[in-house]
Design a protein that fits this description.
Helices cover about 40% and strands about 15% of the residues. It is α+β, with helices and mostly antiparallel strands. The strands form 4 sheets. It has a 6-stranded mixed beta sheet with strand order 2-7-6-5-4-15. A hairpin with a 5-residue loop joins β8 and β9. α7 packs antiparallel against α8, α14 packs across α17 and α16 packs across α18.
């Protein structure tokens, strides 16, 4: 039996919200009514769609796979197979065949399906496996195959606790998928707005007198919960928010002890109605243990954990050494706060200390539960900030064709409905990324569960270019499925060194002028050339369908009025793009 995957990162959509939409006309006829959340939609007419489920889906089916089981006769609940179903599947022939009744519960077995009671057994197994795979609900479409939902399916869903929704004949599955996509997009926008507001509020709090207390109070307000600074022995060094129950405080002290005793840099625990997260704030050495920020929040409120991570970074700088590499001075903390408030990097350069910095862009892989705080600790820095995926999807579309079924990540684009028997998955949302600033003298290595793009060391004045280089390296790492890729600047004897930067920039501006107002085309051309014209790898790097890549490249060739199959043309375009990489002022 397959095991459900971890909960997806896309915001949930309450099933009740979909049922309330009069334009869809959905009606729940079985299963639990409360607390059902949908993360995405999957359409399948396969007898066993379980291998293709990620968990959290509403599985949509028109019951095509039941036609053979029902054998063209009246099925349970008055459902009738469409005309043209094979007469050979009828009960009479099944009785003559005399299959082993013990095989009736195996989904997709034609002979077993023809025995008396086989439909009940088949649908019971279908519902049980769908629940075990983590699906949130089952949607059954009325027409063109069935006139009503089979009564045996209603009973099976009630028995296994699977919400069953009737999709009326006038509502295409694409309308349900679109409704879920729209709701997820709106929820994601609300989450990002809330996170942005919390970041600004926390940064402002960190600049006030008694910054630690101010940050704790602001954090409690934005996560709608309790938080505290705890020593490994349970001593409290500040708290804010409603005082929780004794069991929560006891669990919080236990997490602080685990972290302070040399355990992980972050830890979590779950109690009824409460999710606890703990973050190590101070470096661990022989003579000191970690002070922990412990946050108690609603377990169904993912943004709360992201907000807590921002507070942990600020409190690490405020309360003492962030890592074993040395103390975080008041100037260092002030630099971070000013950056968070929108100051230019050059303005805070005198406060940052080291003359050279390395920029790291990171994206969490789906198969990991490692936190951003854990990655920051491994990299030896607290100068981290959340970012976004390289190019989040704007409209539903299929993930790159190079990915095998079942490997789609949150943030991948949705597929359109397919013919009966094919698989289609809708997975709205965007995969979060992380950016980090690291002193150039620290070694950066691959970290389990993360994909990293690393810039070359750069002075503060050149950090914007280093940031772009790290982003480009991350895209190459994702496209090549490599744990870490470093950006390399051409040496002193490269072709680029033969042309003065000013002349190279003017040439690039003239050559690429038709694309100046289309940043997405410039990004696509840059990645396509960097990945040697590979449609699949470019699609993977940008998070779009490879047909979209083809369409963009065709459009680029038309706008530039050139032949992109000519290696000389590719070389000249690459030279121009690299010139703009060195100086990001195309106009």
């Amino acid at each position: 039996m397959p095991h459900p995957m971890p909960p997806p990162s896309t915001p949930p959509v309450p099933l009740a919200d979909l049922l309330a939409r009069t334009d869809l006309g959905l009606r729940q006829i079985a299963g639990p009514r409360q607390g059902v959340a949908i993360h995405w939609v999957h359409t399948s007419e396969m007898a066993d769609p379980v291998p293709y489920l990620l968990g959290g889906e509403m599985l949509l089916t028109a019951g095509v796979h039941l036609a053979e089981v029902m054998g063209g006769t009246e099925g349970a609940g008055g459902a009738a197979a469409r005309p043209g179903a094979s007469d050979a599947a009828g009960p009479g022939l099944a009785g003559a065949a005399g299959p082993d009744p013990s095989a009736a519960a195996e989904p997709g077995t034609a002979d077993a399906a023809r025995t008396p009671g086989a439909l009940d057994a088949y649908l019971d197994g279908y519902a049980a496996r769908t629940v075990a795979a983590g699906a949130a609900a089952l949607g059954f479409g009325i027409a063109p195959v069935h006139d009503t939902v089979p009564a045996a399916l209603v009973a099976a869903c009630d028995r296994h606790g699977l919400p069953l929704v009737e999709v009326p004949a006038g509502t295409p599955f694409t309308a349900v998928e679109s409704a879920v996509w729209q709701a997820v997009t709106e929820a994601r926008h609300r989450e990002l707005t809330r996170l942005s507001e919390a970041q600004r509020a926390l940064a402002s709090a960190a600049a006030r007198p008694d910054p630690a207390s101010a940050v704790l109070r602001t954090l409690a307000r934005h996560v709608h919960g309790w938080n505290a600074l705890l020593a490994p022995d349970g001593a409290q060094h500040g708290s804010a928010g409603p005082r929780p129950a004794t069991a929560v405080r006891t669990a919080a002290a236990r997490l602080a002890q685990v972290i302070g005793a040399g355990g992980p840099s972050s830890a979590t625990d779950t109690l009824p109605g409460t999710s606890l997260s703990a973050y190590a704030l101070t470096g661990r050495g022989r003579d000191r243990q970690a002070l922990a920020l412990v946050v108690a929040a609603d377990p169904h409120d993912p943004p709360a954990h992201a907000i807590a991570g921002v507070a942990a970074v600020l409190l690490s700088l405020i309360t003492g050494p962030a890592t074993a590499h040395g103390p975080a001075t008041a100037e260092h903390s002030a630099a971070l706060v000013r950056l968070l408030l929108g100051a230019r990097p050059a303005d805070v350069a005198p406060l940052l200390g080291p003359s050279l910095w390395t920029v790291v862009h990171a994206e969490r892989r789906r198969d990991t539960t490692e936190s951003a705080a854990s990655l920051a600790a491994a990299l030896g820095t607290s100068l981290v900030a959340p970012g976004t995926a390289a190019e989040p999807p704007a409209t539903p579309g299929k993930r790159p064709g190079s990915e095998a079924p079942g490997t789609r990540r949150p943030g991948s684009e949705a597929t359109a409905p397919t013919e009966a028997g094919a698989e289609a998955t809708t997975t709205p949302g965007a995969t979060p990324a992380l950016r980090a600033l690291i002193p150039a003298d620290r070694e950066i290595t691959a970290h389990p569960g993360w994909t990293l793009g690393v810039s070359e060391p750069a002075p503060v004045a050149e950090l914007p270019a280093a940031d772009r280089h790290a982003a480009s390296a991350l895209r190459r790492a994702l496209a090549g499925r490599t744990a870490l890729v470093r950006h390399r600047t051409p040496g002193p004897h490269s072709v680029t060194s033969l042309v003065a930067p000013t002349d190279a920039r003017r040439h690039a501006q003239a050559l690429l002028a038709p694309l100046t107002d289309s940043p997405h085309l410039l990004t696509t051309l840059h990645n396509w050339l960097a990945l040697h014209g590979s449609w699949d790898r470019t699609a993977t790097a940008l998070g779009i369908h490879r047909n979209t890549v083809r369409q963009r490249i065709t459009r680029i060739a038309g706008l530039l009025d050139t032949d992109l199959d000519d290696p000389d043309v590719r070389m000249e375009l690459w030279f121009a793009l690299r010139s703009l990489d060195r100086d990001p002022t195309p106009s």
